[in-house]
Amino acid sequence: MKQENKIFGILAIVLGAIALLGSWIPGINQISFLIAILALILGIVGLCLNRKNKKVLAIIGTVLSVASIVFAVGSQVIYNQIQKNAAQDTVSTNQAEEEFTWTKEQFDALKQGDILQRGAGGTNYDDVIKEHGQPSKESTTKKKDRENKVISYVSTGNNIQSVTLTFDKQEDGSFLLISKVAMGLE
Which residue ranges traverse the bilayer (predicted)? Predict the structure, then answer.
């Protein structure tokens, strides 16, 4: 057997070791993955050049680069799962804070104002917000000389429940109820 052509094997070992060290660090593991791919290519080139010679360094470099790729991908999967779980915990916490507080009695107690009189006699928007908190969704529309505000409260639990209220803006800037729709209230 001839002497091993060492340059590609040595480069594969050095780059594979660098990639292996960085494969555990978030953010750096993505760069380590690229370095490990380069080390794998150099290791394979070293194996091909030394088909009839010793291949010890090229084999070591190739093994290090494959291990680096596996660790980099594995750690990235773990970090992504941790981030996903943290995001779900945040959403769950926000949803728990914004519980659906409507009952059928509360909904029925809302007074719809006269739609032709811009909601005169209807429940005030501010009173609804004080009692039930911020809605799940809110939008405002303007048509000609009228401005309407539509708010919705939607349950996040197993039973689908919702309350949608439409308010008409008064000359003093307040909003009065002109329409109410509920679904699933008990």
Answer: 7-25, 31-49, 56-79
Give mean pLDDT, residues 150-173: 86
Closest CA to 180 of 108, 117, 114: 108
Domain that holds residue 14: 7-97
Interhelix angle 28-49/7-22, rounded to 10 degrees, is: 160
Q: Which of these three, 97, 123, 147, is where a domain ends?
A: 97
- Domain-terminating residue out of 97, 125, 154: 97
Per-residue HEC secondary structure of the chain comes to: CECCCCHHHHHHHHHHHHHHHHCCCCCHHHHHHHHHHHHHHHHHHHHHHCCCECCHHHHHHHHHHHHHHHHHHHHHHHHHHHHHHHHHHHHHHHHHHCCCCCCHHHHHHCCCCEHHHCCECCCEHHHHHHHHCCCCEEEEEEECCEEEEEEEEECCCCCCCEEEEEEEECCCCCEEEEEEEEECCC
Is this model's pTM higher than 0.90 or not? Answer: no
